[in-house]
Amino acid sequence: MGRAKKVVLAYSGGVDTSVCIPYLKQEWGVEEVITLAADLGQGDELDPIKQKALDSGASVSLVRDVTKEFVTDYAFPAIKANALYESRYPLTTALARPLIAKILVEAAEEYGADAVAHGCTGKGNDQVRFDVSIAALNPDIKVLAPAREWGMSREETIAYGERFGIASPVKKSSPFSIDRNLLGRSIEAGPLENAWNEPPEEIYAMTKAIADTPDEPTYTEIGFEKGIPVAIDGKALEPVELITQLNAIAGNNGVGRIDMVENRLVGIKSREIYEAPAMLVLIHAHRDLESLALPSDLAQYKRGIEDTYGKMIYNGLWYSPLKSALDAFIDSSQERVSGIVRVKFHKGNAIIVGRQSVNSLYDEDLATYTSADQFDHKAAEGFIYVWGMPIRVWAQKNK
């Protein structure tokens, strides 16, 4: 079943993507498989993964460190947009997919491949994100998804791999399926598939249980410039270091856990657990700073944009024309969103207790109820008369 001669495969080192290598060659007649592993700050030692790909039959095994690009070009735009899917999930896993698609297409061009491939099944969101993003970047390249078509159970997949020298896992140490990168972790499957079951403490790695967090609160100041986080406690930090430090601060205080039943793009509901300490805090802080620096009509209109933006990321539409147009709107809205937000971390809570900005539209002399009040109270009566006129006319006509 010859579909392509040379294929670049998105590679994680797991069972499915490892078995994809011999499967593509044996079943689909692919002559050469090049693997590409993306370093997204997940903390794995990628040299063994690189070697495993070669041992599994790859002709070339690539590793690309794209952690900084992941933060600056994908996470930061999402923060500026306050992007939360279904008002809860900060898209930590979904944001990685368009970047992986981008480097897949680039590698295919570099190595003269006529197809790219991934190990996604036919049930999840990632297949959509990969396929649509790849098509947006190169509509002419073939996309192969062996795991979506081979119809093998996990046991059958492992057995197939063993036939071609791919060692089976020594043991299935965990029933959970976990994806992680610098921004966070997503955990699903196993006992979590019963939506009534409380998540066991063992699944968490970035956040402490409330009982184990410090008794004293931690105060942290986050600095923003034009909507982008740039500093912690007055110290300017590079993007990756800023996320790393804030993950540690928030996670140490038990902040960053999400337990939700979400609506997948393919039409089913899925119980998901996420850890996203820094992203949740940064979106929370950024939105608060906007309340200080943005006019009310702009802030209110942007809320609707944010919901659409989050759905587009989740649904794999990062490279769509609408997303590009929304980016232009959001970037324009962020010109004055610079300042500092003070966050109090304590026992699983991240509470904003202060904010300041040179562009603040908050005027204490107008807001105060003290003798320093400069608001013209007499103007209120005329304003109320004009403002309420439609209601009064309606009431008179409908007595």
From TrEMBL:
Arginosuccinate synthase C-terminal domain: which residues?
A: 176-393
The places in or outside the cell where this protein is found are: Cytoplasm
EC number annotated for this UniProt entry: 6.3.4.5
Task: Locate the residues binding ATP.
Answer: A10, Y11, S12, G13, G14, V15, D16, T17, S18, A38, G119
InterPro entries (alphabetical): Arginosuc_syn_C, Arginosuc_syn_N, Arginosuc_synth, Arginosuc_synth_CS, Arginosuc_synth_type_1_subfam, AS_cat/multimer_dom_body, Rossmann-like_a/b/a_fold
Q: Which Pfam families match?
A: Arginosuc_syn_C, Arginosuc_synth
Q: What residues bind L-citrulline, as annotated?
A: Y89, N125, R129, S177, S186, E262, Y274
Q: Which reaction does it catalyse?
A: L-citrulline + L-aspartate + ATP = 2-(N(omega)-L-arginino)succinate + AMP + diphosphate + H(+)
Q: Which domain of life is it from?
A: Bacteria
GO molecular function annotations of the record: argininosuccinate synthase activity; ATP binding
Task: Give GO BP annotations, semicolon-separated.
Answer: argininosuccinate metabolic process; L-arginine biosynthetic process; urea cycle
Q: Which residues bind L-aspartate?
A: T121, N125, D126
Which part of the chain is the Arginosuccinate synthase-like N-terminal domain? Answer: 6-166
Q: What are the protein's UniProt keywords? A: Amino-acid biosynthesis, Arginine biosynthesis, ATP-binding, Cytoplasm, Ligase, Nucleotide-binding
Q: Please provide, in alphabetical order, the Gene Ontology terms of the cellular component aspect for this entry.
A: cytoplasm
Its UniProt pathway annotation is:
Amino-acid biosynthesis; L-arginine biosynthesis; L-arginine from L-ornithine and carbamoyl phosphate: step 2/3
The entry describes its oligomerization and partners as:
Homotetramer.
Similarity comment: Belongs to the argininosuccinate synthase family. Type 1 subfamily.
HAMAP family, A to Z: Arg_succ_synth_type1
Name used for this protein in its record = Argininosuccinate synthase
